[in-house]
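Before relying on records like the one below, remember that each one covers exactly one chain. Contacts with other chains, cofactors or solvent are not represented anywhere in the record.
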Amino acid sequence: MKKDLSVECLRGLACVLLVTYHVIGDNSEQGLRVAADSYLRYLNDSLVYLRMPLFTFLSGYVYSLRPVKSNPIGFLVKKVRRLIIPMLVVGTLYIGIQHLVPGTNSTYSFITLYSFYPVAHFWFLEALLLIFVVLVPMEFSGILKRKGSFFLVLLFFSGISLSQVKTTTFFAVNGAVYLMPYFLLGVGIHRFNLDKIGPGVKSLILIVALISILFSQLGLSGVVEIDLARRSLVAFLLGAAGVVSLFLFRFENKFLAAIGEYSYTIYLFHVFSAAAVRIIMVRLGVTSLELHLFLGIIAGIAAPILLEKLLSKYSVARLLLFGKSAR
């Protein structure tokens, strides 16, 4: 199947957003450790509603191109190979390096990883597997093949997410509840040809996204008091309308598309090279936040791509590091 350049471009964009997030850091104690009033902190907080929803939406869309039709157990086994084996192997490397290298921002326990509680960004892999586990029986029941029942399912999972019902962090259940609606949106937009909708509906979706962006920025700026939790109504409207708008009005860029081809490897490994560059620059006395950000993003993207190019020809590395078939 020929790859859609515009979809790969959106994958590349998602990678850039993710790497930027981890280079800047989630708070003033991580990444570049920028202050709460820094424009970089404001940028990071503003993009939180698009980063993981976009990754998940694209995962759903790509799945819908080749959905499971037979052998559900075999399908899930392949997903375990693709998601959980690299999570455990690369996660072990991640925790080990954090314990050994001075200058890292935080440390995790090996027990946390091996007991399948979320560790750093690897939570997404657990959440995605859980989404597939829930998805497969629904696929074989047929309820996702009919437009009416599909949107009832989407409404159901959206309601669970918006209810902010307390779940467990075990196996990233919280993350799966949060991301399931975006995955289903990705499936539905291809399965029911929703990308062929007219300009009027496209414009309406874009308006919803823009209004949601406005409300989120007012909330982040402290102008008005708005619930901006990731599973709040504003966050959901911004995430859903935002990723759908990006998809409907998508563009083609060969540079971003080239990055998108390695999106999974970048997701797994970007923190290693980005953190290495930050530690080196700090020891060299470089204080420019802009230079830190630029070089961190370059390293977080380029090094994983180089790593896959060098190691993917080896069967053991293909399996353990990238979750691909050893053959």
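Residues 72-100 form the longest helix (29 residues).
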